[in-house]
Amino acid sequence: MISIKQLKVTYHSEFSSVKAVNDISFKLSKNESVGIMGESGCGKTSVAHAIMGLLTHARVQGIIDCDSVNLLSLSRKEWQAYRWKKIAIVFQNSLDALNPVLTIGEQIAEPIQTHICIGKKDIHEQVIHLMEQVGLSPELIYQYPHQLSGGMRQRVLIAMALSCKPEYLIIDEPTSALDPETSDHILSLIKKLQYKQGFSMLMISHQLSAIQRMTDRLITLYAGQIVEDGPTQEVLSNPMHGYTRGLINASPEFFSYKDLWGFANEPPLHNDSSGCVFYSRCCQREERCQQSCPQLRSISKARKIACHKGGIETFLRAENISKTFHVKKKSIKALKNIDITIKSGEIVSLVGRSGSGKSTLAHILVNILTPDTGKVIYANLNQSKKQFCSMNGIEIVFQDPFSAINERLSILDIVCEPLNVLKWQTYDNRKAAALDCLKKVQLSTASSFIKRPVSTLSGGQRQRLAIARSLVTQPKLLIADEITSMLDASTSANIIRVLRTIQNQSGFAMLYITHDLFLARKIADKFYVMHDGEIVESGAAFNVIDHPKHPMTQLMLNSIRN
């Protein structure tokens, strides 16, 4: 077993020092496959090179225990007994990793000559055997790296790594520069060789589909620190750290329909603060996150999270919500035992036909209507008016921009209205906040424009104004109720793009209500499908779209496909 404890890697230059890896600990057990994912520069390759003892120009601290031997205490000569024979690596860039003046055969033979005492004839036979194992023709033995394709060079690196039959294999971005077909062949080859030889594997990749296919356990690395650790399938299907969720949402392999959004800010290159490294990009940060760095701690038998709040928190939870309207002598059951949850920073789409109860549920969630049964909980507190009459609360954008806004007020007055009600700070501060929101929704902030009455605006402009008014209180949850249903296709697309951009930058959670599945699948992380006042299907957006289970979901999808 390889056990890494409090590993730190620091690169020094003439002008500064960069802590690429900061106090990480994890284990790689026998016959286990562990994946490490994260953005470029997060420290993945530094971890791999530290384990291999290749960081001669960096300061490496901590313990790298390989079968009860601390590798960091070894001399360069002692390292030779471990490198390639006990632990081997498949490097990232095959063209840079291979020597351009040596033949393929010479390079595969090099580790064998160093670590195994056999004759030239036996070495040659071993090289031929290795080439055949990795799917290379023995005729290529006298070729040079530049004469081979990228996939062939990657196979050469695999042959070199396995030449001394190591117990542990580190694979650094094995398919990053390859086409999909070649990538598939390389991953299949590695999997087959692992099954035959039984080595443990540490796989570094930013391709989540490769990690999902190849590993048992997954570690998320951010700015040199581990922020999440758990079984691969569990982490990818139910990420518990905001950074892990962001990586998954940015992956085209998982969301083939959805517009892809990266993180709004850049990761810190120099993290000198004592607080959480993810603070500047987190959608649920609070004061204590800036004051102390959260430790990686177990939240279940198999899951670990580095977050003061224990991971992504559930911001809204509605339980057993029912509502009946009494019209003359008739009773209309609008909602029947509804349960929904919305997590911090999550985009949830509530879809269903007209009359299915979507808007009724929205009005209950924002306290316009009172449910007959059930309760609504926000951030672990029961629903109250304070959550709607405060900064950082809950806001709603209504379906009809013409009836939702007072036409007699000026544009500036409309956006300032919530702040005026709250008596928030000074008038100048309110005006500045209002102008900032107008900029965000791409409306003019010119004096001649903001003084105009709302009645002079088009439908699309009114809806942008309604969004600006909702955002001025910096809500943690925004409910958008059919906000494009009264607009043309082009205006709708622009409105959605603007709102999604703001959401990505600000990080608020959003409940997007629509009957348009095409639109919903472009933006949502999670779906709830409503029919006749009930939730008939729910789940990750891509699962509901690709594998609909309820007849109503199937009918809605078939109707838009046709």
Automatic annotation (TrEMBL):
Q: Name one Pfam family in it.
A: oligo_HPY
Domain ABC transporter span(s) in chain numbering: 4-248, 316-557
Entries under InterPro entries matching the protein = AAA+_ATPase (IPR003593), ABC_transp_ATP-bind (IPR050319), ABC_transporter-like_ATP-bd (IPR003439), ABC_transporter-like_CS (IPR017871), Oligopep_ABC_C (IPR013563), P-loop_NTPase (IPR027417)
Question: What keywords were assigned to this record?
Answer: ATP-binding, Nucleotide-binding, Transport
Citing just one GO molecular function, the answer is: ATP hydrolysis activity
Cite the PROSITE patterns for this sequence: ABC_TRANSPORTER_1, ABC_TRANSPORTER_2
Task: Give GO terms for biological process.
Answer: peptide transport; transmembrane transport
Question: Which superkingdom is the protein from?
Answer: Bacteria
Q: Does the keyword Nucleotide-binding apply?
A: yes
UniProt lists the family membership as follows: Belongs to the ABC transporter superfamily.
Identification of the protein by name: Peptide/nickel transport system ATP-binding protein
Give the source species: Candidatus Magnetoglobus multicellularis str. Araruama
